[in-house]
C-alpha cells in the first residue's frame, strides 16, 4: 500500500471510530470481555458468554433508559429528587426481571441459581452503580462539551470583534490623513508629494501587516515615525514634536495600531485647538518582554463643545476594547486630563 492510500485511509478510520455508535459498541464489547474473564469458571466459555451477554443487556437497558429518557426529562430540568426516585424505581423494576431471566438460563446450575436468589441485593446494587456511573459520565461529558463550545464561541467572538475594531481604526486614520493631504494640495504645497510617500508606507503597513494578531514592534515604531513625520509636515514650525525610544527594539511583537489612537487624539484634540505654540512629547521604553508608552500633549483649557464630546471617540473606545481582548490583566492604562495638558501612559506585557 503506497503512502497516498494510507493518507486516504487514516481519515476514514478516524472518522469511523469517532462515531458515537462505534465507540459505544467498543465500550460494551470491552466490558463484556472483562465480565467473562472475571467469571467464577464454573461455566464453559460459551455459556459464560451467553450469561454475561444477558447481564450486559440489562446494564445497557438501564444505562440508555437513563441517558435518553430520565436525564433529558428530569435531571436536565432540575427535577433532581424526582430523577433519583425514578432511577431507583427503574432499577427496582429491572432487577427482578434480570434475576428471573438469569435464573431460567442457569437451570442446569442449581448452586448458581441459589446464589443468584441470595444475592439479589448485590444484583440491584451493581445495576444501580452502572446506572449512576452513566449519570456521572454524562454530566462530565456535557461539562467538557460546554467548556469546549464556550471556548470556541469566545474565540470566534474575539476574532469578530477584533476584525470589527480594526475595520473602524483603519478608515479612521485614512480619513484624517486624506484630509491633511487635501488641505495641502489646495495650498499647492511642496510638502504634498512627501505626504503621499508617507501615506503609501502607512497604507502598506495597514493593508499587509495589520491583519496579523501580532506584528513586530519595530514595524509599529516605523509606523509611528511616519505618522509623526506627516504631522510635522502639516503642523509647521510652531509645533514641537518629540519621539524618543529607549531600550532595544528587536523581535518583540505587539498588537498592531495599539498606540495610534493616542497619537491621533493628541493632534486632533490637542494641537489643533491651540491658539499659540503647542507640543507632543512621546517616550517609549522597551525591554525584552514589555513596552512602556507615554505621550503628553498640550491642549486648550476649554475645547469647543463639539470637539469635547468627540474627544474620546472611536480611537480611545476601541483601544480600551482591544486591550481587554488582547491583553486581559496584562496591561496598565493611565490617562490624566489636566487643564493644559493631556497625558497617557500605557504599559503592555508582551510575553502573552
List key phrases describing it.
two-stranded antiparallel ribbon, Heat Shock Protein 90, alpha+beta, 11 helices, 352 residues
Counting structural domains, the number is 2
Give me the secondary-structure category. Answer: alpha+beta
Oligomer type: single chain
Task: Please report the total strand number as a whole number.
Answer: 7
Overall geometric form: rod-shaped
> Main sheet: which strands, in order across?
2-4-5-7-6
Secondary structure tally, helices: 11
What is the CA-based Rg, rounded?
A: 36 Å
What is the CATH first-level class name of the largest domain? Alpha Beta
As a percent range, the share of strand residues is 5-15%
CATH architecture of the largest domain: 2-Layer Sandwich
Distance between the termini: 45 Å
pLDDT < 50 stretches: 304-313
Order of helices and strands: HHHHHHHEHEEHEEHHEE
The overall average pLDDT, rounded, is 82
Determine the CATH topology of the largest domain: Heat Shock Protein 90
Q: How would you name the CATH homologous superfamily of the largest domain?
A: Histidine kinase-like ATPase, C-terminal domain
**Helicity level, as a percent range?**
55-70%
How many strands, what sense, and barrel or not for the largest sheet? 5 strands, mixed
